[in-house]
Structures are given as structure tokens and as C-alpha cells.
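haha ok so turns out i had the wrong file open the whole time. this is the CORRECT one, sorry everyone. sequence first:
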Amino acid sequence: MPSLVGEIQERESSRSTQDAPLGTPRHSIDSSTGFPQAQHRSKSAFARAREARRNAPPKSDDIPVVQPTSEPSLAGSSTAVDLPPTTPPQIPEEQWRAEIASQNEKRVREMSDSEREREREDLIERFGPGIVDLMQRVKRRRVKSPSQEDDDPALFISATEGNAEHQVSEGVDAPKPRIIIPSNLNELPLHTPQHHARPSSPLPSALRSATGSPLPKTPGRKPRFSTEPNEVYVYESAPSSPKRQPIALLGAPDPGNPSPNQLTYRGPAPSASNTHEDDAMDISSPMEGPTHSYQPFAGEPGVANEEGTPEDIRKRFFPNADPNDPSLEWIKGTTTGRVSQTGSTPTKEKEEPTTKSIRYDLSGRPIPEALRQSLPTHLGLHHHGDEQDEAGYTLDELIMLSRSTVPAQRASMLGTLGKLLSYAAAPSNGGNGAVEVEDIRTKVLVTALEALAERGGVLVRAVEALWISTVDYARKRPSSSLDIVALAPLPALLRQLAAHLLPSAQELPPESLTQLLEFVIFLASSPSIENPTPDEIGSEILRTRDLIPSILHTFITSPSSTSSWTSSSGGSLPPNADAIMLVDALAQTSRANATTVVENGLADTFMMFVVVLPSSSATDDAKDINLAHELLARTLDLYATLGKYGMYAITATTAADGFVALGNYVLDLITPGLLDLANQRSGWQVVTSYLKLLEVWMTCAIDPHKTTPPHEILWSQVVGWEWASHVYQLRRRLLQLLGDNSGPHTDVGKRPIAATIRAALAAVWHVLAAWLEGSAVNSVKSGELERHQFVEEIAIPETRPAEDLALSQVVEEFDQSLSVVAQKANNEYGNLETLSSNGMVLLSAIRLGFACLPPEPTPPTPAPFGPLSESNFHAILILCNKLVFHPLWDQLRNLPTYQILLLRPLTSLVAYATLVARRCGAQGLELKDWLKLSFGTMTCLVEGEEDLGSRVLEGITRSITKDAARELTSSGDKLDASPEVSSQGGLQVILPFFQTALRRTHVKSREGGGEDDDGPGNEESPTEIVAPLVTGRNSIQEATTLRLPHSSTSSKGSSSTPRGGGYGLPLRRDWTFAPLDALLHSSTAPVFKVLPNDWDHSEVDVVRATLLLARILQDIVAARTNSGFTSEARAVTMSQEEVVFGCMKVFMLEHGQNSSSSFGNDSAAEVFRDAIVSTEMDRLLAPFRSLGRSTNPPPAANRNFPPSLERTALPYLGAATPFFQFYSDFLGLYDGVSFGHPTFGALLIPPLANSTYPIDYRKLLWGDYAHVLRHLSMEPAEIIGSDAKDWLYPVESDGELIGMYVKALGNERLRGFLRWVAVHHVASNIWPDLQEHSLTSFESKAKAMDAEPTEASKQARLTRSRKVLQAVLGNSNLNGVKEVVLYYQPEPNSNPALPPPMCFEDNNSGNWKQQRLEWVLTWGGDGLSSRLQGLLSG
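then structure:
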């Protein structure tokens, strides 16, 4: 039987091996042996192949014609013919098509019906059931338009498959383009490419057949052109490329007039419920899109192997592969997360995106979930991940690909990771897809650190990702923290950086080298690094071999940098001032590192920028001048940093001529051009840096014995160099510019002064203050002549108005900035930065005014003085009072380090303002107002301001005298400084304790003792001493660092406590009890090692003065005044818990004491029995004894302070000692030595509150120490607390404790408040009406968990009530039974608790007595009810 389609037979090729196709072997075959002929090795395989291609005959572009050699029979198979070597004659297409058609028709006519049916079944089996319909459609189409015949299979592939990718996204309003076939075109339109998920394992190319030979290509189409402008449509998803023009496709159809020739979907077959076999290929009636993209393989029921289905693809391209091969899963596609074309949403429940589910594009931006399935594959966002059909990469996939063995892929993914983090860290985009930014930052940083060992493009991208995850991230999120040690060993990391920066091995571009420099600066100076400490980082950087030399060679001393120090120098890199800033940052980390900088000659390297000054010629490039100014300013900043340690001041002598020339150069910079040109910011930096250096060197010259080494600079040299006269000239020129109304930028009072000019003005005032401070020490008559000259200088009419206006403007803007910060809940960086810059200007003015005052003791000097007029001075004092009581300081211990840096000028400002107000006689300021300002100042100080705090404390202790107490009492304040305290030295007794407490200390072992041991083998030594913001003559010798420690490491030894938990700044609100802490740890307290030789006081004297100062703080700050000073916004006073715990410390002084006191025999009696001590404690506790009274406690009681004694005691006890242990010792001490002391007993009651403390405290007192209850007979008015409900609710449910209450009620000696508490809890466990009230007010766990009480729980509760009542009737006396039966309380939600005796009175509102009697009758019978009927009748 002849076959309809003959088999293809391969013929023997007659061509030589040179004419063989690319798929044949290239070596010639010896016919005799069958082996390839030997090839000489002088020619490579590539050269031989190239020669073979050159010798090959040219290929023809004509379509080969198949010419059968004989008439094929129906029974046999057709024979394949060879392609002729020459070009065949051209035959018209219509002719050979007609010949082939006639031959086919003839063959079909000669076939019988059975043969035709057999061939039909064979075709269906081979090509699928759709082949019949397909051939009929092709035939009809050829009949209609023979000229449009095309055998391209793509004709029948629907273009809507590609459009489906645009339509699956929810919420996408873009038009849905469809490719149509206009009737006026003779060529078919280009179809959109179909996107299939790629296999997860390497497979043969889809462009080759199963045998490996290339598939035949379809004949190339002729170019087509649009006839109308609206027929051209460029898809938005098409990639833009400058090298290729966008593909011009036909325009999108009009939705209101769809074309009848629209192609239909020909992808994976839809489900049977959504398709109709009759019109599946009907072009005129397009069907709806498929609801599922998954297409099952052959073998599954109801599956047809149509063209384009997964089974069809497998048979055509992978015929030998198993249908269930996992590597072919990509053919099927997936339905996860897809949306049908009809707009239905996926059934998968919407969940909040997490870091693992978010997918990103190659620019690092999150891809919306609705667009992941619609983006085309040419964007490069599809890969062999877990979700192959979804575009984009998850974070884990990017990290995995960043470790690829392909360098290009690894570099690309590292770049994407950097972009991703940069986008996620932006404040405006932080929540847009990036849920856990800190986690992303850590992963990107670790990935970048791993790639630093690579080379080429991978290294460049790794450096960029490292820079983004550290330097750039810290700029965008300054409150972040970073633990370098947890990510990579610091020494190994620095050695790797040194290897990349080594001049002989540099392969990085200039941008990457600059990023590496900025990263090293980040390590040395960033306040966000939590671990290691700045000192450890700086030491390791300086210790790393070749790191600093390579940086200096690359950015400072290279031939391209030293030629002319300009940005246009030859070479790859111009000089970079950041390299000098790096050395400056290293010197700031510690005194030891600053010594290394000086000894290694690093500071000498930059002297060339001082000796050779920049050119001021008008013809020079402004960019080069700015660079030279920046290099000079950084150098001067470095010298000022070294000078704050008292180092390198000898340079002022060795390079005196150079600094004289520098002074003249700086003076010449103060010209109108410096104000007019916006690009002259670097010029102002030079002016400011020069003045700061003079200030530091003047401070070093005040006491030359404190420089390192001594006598590096002398005050006589400062006078001889006439620095003061030079600064006076600079000040005059600056103020003349500001007062010149003709300039566009100098209209002072009407236009804001630029920040650079303000900084220069503040630097001028600081230098003059240092000059007057040094003159007061080294000049005759304590600098009287210098102060007189200064007064004459500031009184010059040409400059005084401009100075007053400039200061007034700063005062006004400071007030506005403070108000803005008050309106911001998060205290944004920009607001604090503005407030800090204005505060620095006010600080310089206040400091200069303080330096103008003659040394003490002198009579008070009235204002004005210095740059401060009377109005400005009073306005600054009002602002300082407003500042110290600002809510910002409530969170001082929890603020990140970068914000504390911004607050340093403000803390110094209020401290200097307090000192000035006291010295100038506090004009217009009463003593109580000044004390209020002083107490507020003490809680604002941060580390580094210990000297200022000590001076403020000295002023406080000197001001509170017997006469001052009389003055305050006469003005209406109840302040009484007892004569005993005044006669024993007053508050001067405790001044050394406070001065020592200002320094942060920790226990240091001397002989192998642990850090937490308090034995004699340990001693407390100061930690790093932070230099103050304003350099002092003592700090240049004592300071060990210029950097604040990280906020998380500032209090070592108690990591769980908040910042400032132990000794040191910032002080806690209970800082007035610091002397008591020293007395309790007298064996290790450092104060006893530094007490003055003439200090001779007893323990009682210290306690008296401490309690007096604490009470004055409470009374003065809470008092209201009429002078504009208020303290309502922030409470500086102590809370109830802090006062209670402080008084507990007084009694704990007797814990573990021997018969003799450590202070001598005069303190043999207990301290708490001293009459003054007892009186002061009662006065301290009086405002908090407001139980049942409508009194207002101090402001601290109404604010969000530590809610319990456990939290309050944590800084003192530490994390290892619980407060329960302290309370147990305190209760045992009361049992042993109190003899019923009322104040001692009152302090036992607060930890018994049900609402705050665990049940252990109540069991300890009511059980183990039940015998002391008879001494605790305080009435409710004597209880320390504000609401009795804290002890009454929630109602006690512990059976053991209820039994203790019942037992205690049987003792007639239990009286007062504690008897009320016992009656309440016992009665509430008996009577149903009280139980309902307790449940209504305080929900049980079952109610909180939406679990209704079961019948068993109700029965158990009823049983308990019966047992408790029977226990009361059996164990209590008649009075106790009466109280329990007649006890009543209203609903606690809306009513205050009724205290005794009102809770026992005959108040039968609601008929509760009759209800209780009926309840007893239901279960107790007549016998029990008759016993209670007399009490409950009526």
C-alpha cells in the first residue's frame, strides 16, 4: 500500500570533507584505514578550520528545490534527492505549487477508501487530531487568497499568548495589545515571541533537532510597512537600546471595533470546561483566554497532542526523553500565583510580603506581585529559580548568584545587591517592599566582604556593595548599629584592604579606591559601630602594615598629587582631603593612637599644605582653589585634634613663620568676594579651622606643664606672636562685612546668616574667650588689662550693632528650632542639626561673656558684658530654662550616639549659662529660679562635661546656706536648712561624692579578681575620659579620647541596664542619692580614696546633707514662679519609686554593719534614728502619701517613669541581684533592728501591690514574717501610694495566700491598711457580688482568651467560696467575721475604693445583703444561714 508521506532516506554524500556541513567531522578520513589522517601540530585546530572555511565554495541563498528522480508509488517511500552543486533554474512558485498539488491529488484518487482511512489515522496518530482541521483551514485559506500562502507554522500560533502576560496583572490599566491581520496587507504580521520557563538543568538547544543537526529555518519574510500612523504600536515592554531601533508592530486594535481577523490563542490547551472543539481554531471568533497555563503530558486522560502543547514540544524536540523527566518541567509551566485572562484573582490567600518573597529587578527595586507573571523574558528577569515563571530575583537568589563561578554573573548580582540596599535604605522607600532593612544590610555586607578577595569587575562591584552597606547606609540611617567583629575578623579585613590599596598592586578604578578610603574612614569615625570600640579600631588600622602608607601615597604624596596639589594634576587621582580626615579620625579615637600619629611622622606629612599656601590669583581655577583650601582646612583640623591632647603644639614654634603667613592669608580671605561666591565654602572652612587651632594652642599655653611633652608652647610665645591682635582684626573685618548693607548677602537682621559665617563668628568668640581665660591665669592682676582692652574693642560703634543683630537672629532661630523639635515625636536628624548649630553660636557667646568676668571672689558683675547685651542675655537664660525642661532629655539615656553628638553643644550651653547667671548676680533671676535651672542642667549633661557639672554642683552647694534658706522661706517656700547641717559644713560635705560620681567607673581587678567582685583585691578605676566639647587646660592632660562611646557599651558591667545606669554622665534623676551608694559600698567606692585631707565628717553628716539636697530639689523644681521659668514640660524631680528606694538605702546602711561604724564612734547608733534624718525622709515621702486624698503629687509621679521598684533598683543592684533579694534583706533588717519604726515600716508596703509585683512579696510578709504584721499598723493616709486599688485588685486567687489572710484576721493586733487589704481579698473570694465586680474590672485569663467559664470552673469557684467562708467562721473572731460578712465595695471601674470604716457601714444599695443571705441559704442550710442572718438582716 503506497504511503501518503514517504520516509526520508539519507543518501551518501559525494562532496569532499571541506564541503561538509558544520555538523560533520572536520578531519579527512583515509578510505583505506578508516582513521582520520594525521595532522601536523604546527597548525592549530582553529587555524585549520579557518583555512577550510576560506577554501569552501560560496553558499547559495536560493531555496533548494526538491526534484524527485522517479514517480513515487503509493506503496513505496519517496526517495530523497541530492542538492545539485550548481544553482537550479528558477521556477515560478505558482508552477511548482501546482505541480505538487496535482501529484498529491492524483495519488489520493488512486487510493481506496480503506487506504485513505488508514493514512488518515496514521496522520492523526503522528500529528494529532487537530491536523485534519488544520489542513482544511489551510486549504480554505489558499482558495480565498492564493497569494498569501505560507507554510510557516507560526501562522497559527496566537499572538494573544504574549498579550496574556500583560493581562494577568491585577490593577494594570495599560491597553491590552493584540496582533491583528489587516485585510489590506499581503504579509502576515510578526507574532510576539512566546515566553517559556527555562529548564532547571542543561538541555539540548531548542534550535536543534533531536539528532543534533540544525532545524531548517523558515524562509525569510519580506519587510512590511505600515500605511497609517496609528497602525504602528511599540510595546512598552520592549527593551530600549541605543543600538537597535524599537520594533514597529501594528497598532493595538480599537476595543469598540475589533478586527475579524484577530488571531486566537494557540498555546497550552485550556481546560475542557472553558473550550469548544468546534471553534477552537476559528479565526473569526476568538475564544477566551485559558484559565490555567499548565498543560499535562500525553498519557493523561482527555489530553490531545495539539501543536504547541507540552507533549508536542517534547515529541518534536526531545523525543527520547521520558515524559515525566523533571528536567522538562519547564515545558509545563506553573499556575502558582497566576491570574486568568478573565480577571479572576488567584485563590491563594493574600499575605504580607516578607523579605524572602519579595522579588527585585536588576536595578534593585521590588517588582509588584501583580506584574511578576506579565513581564517578558527579554528583560533578563527570568531564571532557573524555584519560581521560574515569575520575573525577578529574591534576596536569597541574588546572594546565591553573587557566589557564582561565572565572574560576569557574580559582578552583576553584586551590583544588583548594592542597588537593592541603596533603594531599601532610603527613608522615603524604606517600607516599599523592604520589610527587614537591617537584615538586608547584614546579608549584603557579608556578601561584599566575601567577594573582596576577587579581582576585576567582581572586586569593583564588591567594593561598591561594601560602600553602600556601610558608608551610604550610615548616612541614610544614622541610628543604625553595626558589629564588625561578628561579621569578619577586623585584622584580616584591614590586611585585605591594604593589599588592594598597595600602589604596586592597584587594579581598581579611581572611584573604587575612593570608596575604599571612605570605608576606612567609616571604620575609624562612625558612631554607629557598636563593636569593637573606637580605640581598638584605630589601633588596628594603625597597626596594619602598609595600610596608612598606601592611602597617603595614593591620595596625598603620589607624583600626580604633589605636582601642584590641584584637581587637574596629571595621574589617575587628584589629592583627596579625606585621607587627612582619616588620620584626624584615628587621632580622635584615643590618646595612644594620637601619640602613634605624631611619632610616626604622619602629622608632618601634611605640613606642606601649610607652608605652601594656595594661590589667590583671580586667573586660577576655582575648583583647584577649593581643593587647596580643603586640604589646608583638614590639616589644621588634624593639628587642633592633636592639640586637644596637648600634643604637637611645638609646631607653632618650629613653623612660626609659616603660621604668620597663614594668619595673613586668612585675614585676606575675609573679603566681600568670600560672601558673594557660593563656591567659596572651603574658604570659610579655612577661616574656621585656623581659629579653632589658635583656640586649642592658647589653651595649651595656659599651663605648659600639662602639654605632652611639657613646655611645648608658652604663654609668652602666644603674647609675642600677637595672636589676640590678629583675631581682633579678623573679628572687625568679619563684622564690617556683616554690617555692610550694600552687599547682597550681608543684610544682617533681615536675611539669615549662612551657616559657614555663623561657624566663623562662633570660632572668633571661642578664641577670644580662650585668650581671656589664659590672661586671667598668666597675666598681671588676673588679666585685668586684657579684659579692659577687650571691653574697648567690643564697644567700637562700627561693629557693635552688627554683632548684636547677629546674636539676636541666632537666639530667635534657636527658639524656633526648639519648637520644631518639640512638635516632632522622633526628633529627626535635620531638626537636631539646626538646633545644634545655633546652640554652638550661643555657647561661644556665653563662654566669652563668662570669660569677661573677673575671677572669684568678687562682687557680682551686672550684665551686659562681652557680646551679650542685657536683652540677649535674658533671652538666652529663658531659652536655657526652656531647653533643660524639654521632653527631649527624658530619653537621653536611650538616644543613639549620633544624636548625643548633636546635643553636646546644648548641654555645654545650659551649663555655661548657669555659671554665668550665678556669677553676674542672676539679674532678674531669683535664687529659686537659678536653683531650678541648675538642677535641670545636671540631668542634661553628657559624657565629657564632667568639669562643667562639677562647677555647677559647687555653685549649688555654696548657694544653699542658712541665709539662703531664710530667704527662700520668707518668699513663701517651705525650705528649712537645719542649723545642724549648716554647722557641719552644709552641703559642702557631699560635694566630693558628687564630683566622683560624675566620672564613669568600673571595677578593675588587681590580682585576678573578677570584674564583679567587691573584694579587697579589686579597685574602681576610671574608664576612658572623654574630652569636653570646649577644650580646657585640665582636659589636655586627662582626656584619653575625643570620641563618645557607643550608646550600647557606655555602661559596662550591666548590659541590661539603660544608658547611664551606674556612675557617670548622664546622671539619673535620683543622682542626689549618689553619696548613699558610696556609703553602701564604702570598701570599693573611689571617693574615699580622693577625699581632701581636711574632710572630717561622719556618716550621719553625709546622710543629712544628701536628704536635704534631695528634698530641696523636689520642692524647688516643683514650685511655680512668676519670672517666666517653668518646669511643667519635663519632670526633673524623682518619681515615687526613686524616692522610696533612696530612703530604703538609708535603712540598709545598717545591713551587715558591726557594732562600730566605719566613720568612727560618733556614728555608733543607727543612722535612721537620727532626728534630722527621720524628718528629712518624712518630708521627702510626704508628697507621695496621697492615698484617698485629692492632692497632686510631684510631676514625676504623673510621667512615664520606671513603673516599679524592680526597674528602679536595677541600675544599683545590677542584673545579677534581683530586687526580691534586696527586699528580703530589707524585711529581715526591719524584723531585727527597727522596733516598729514608722517610716521603716511604711517602706515595706509598696512592694505588696497586687497590680505591680509578683505574689512572692506578699507571701514573704504574710507568711514568713507574719509576726511583724502587728507593728505595721499604718492607716491608709500613711501609705505611700496614690490609689488603694493597686493593693485591692486584681482579687487574690492563690489559695495559700488566702489562707494567710484568713489566719491574720484572727489576730486582733492586725490593724489599719493591711487589715483592710486582708478583709477585701477574703470577702471577694466569698461573696458573688464582689466576685462579679472583680471580674468586670480585671478580666481573667479565660476572658482575655475569649474562653467562657465552664460549668466545672463555676462549680470549683462555688466550692472555694464555701470553704473560705467556713474557714473565716472557724478561725476568725467575731470582729473578723463581721468585717468579712459586711464588707462591700462598688464597681472599681467607675468608683473610688471605699476605705474603712465606710466599707463596713450599713449601706444596702442594690439589696446585696439579702442576695448574700439567699446565696448562703442555697448551700449552707438553715444552720449556717441562721449564724449570718443577724448580720445580713435588714
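The first helix runs from residue 45 to 55.
again sry for the mixup
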